[in-house]
Fold this protein.
Amino acid sequence: AQSVTQLDSHVSVSEGTPVLLRCNYSSSYSPSLFWYVQHPNKGLQLLLKYTSAATLVKGINGFEAEFKKSETSFHLTKPSAHMSDAAEYFCVVTRDSSGGSYIPTFGRGTSLIVHP
Amino acid sequence: NAGVTQTPKFRVLKTGQSMTLLCAQDMNHEYMYWYRQDPGMGLRLIHYSVGEGTTAKGEVPDGYNVSRLKKQNFLLGLESAAPSQTSVYFCASSYSGSLPGYEQYFGPGTRLTVT
């Protein structure tokens, strides 16, 4: 079975400081991993994805994530937070269903708060 | 392209009433999904569809039914609404799901309140 754990329900940073959102996964095979962002009262938007190519993945708006197989982690980082980064972030791993489809499993989300 | 659209955006139901949520996508995607989002729970999969005419249960299917009569539409039905179904519902689609790397595209959500 596959699952994903977001280690922090809330992360608070000051504008201009680095952002680290932590995600650990469990998977019985080489997974595909995603980060999505949800701004208040909006749908979800893809930030970046890992699909067994380069382990350091660059996404939109200056975010990046590093796949570390030995640590089963896929943490999301950004060097300098902007006020517009305040949102909910979801880590997602795809799991193999019994029918041969790869179904996404969502973490519970991390709320990023950015202070002026 | 409109992407993924959901109808309605808001709805208030009384306990026991029924309703149908409509999801439409114009990207010719094979897979479609219905999720519910509750505070602190992330997104939980209700049902999904791997193609026209096929559906499957997700993590929390009880109290919901779905249909995919046309490739571009995925309907979510509540036959007898309960207060526990108060939630924000999101529809998503992906080009495929037969390989693990395809991202999902999400609709804007439907906020449902059951009193």
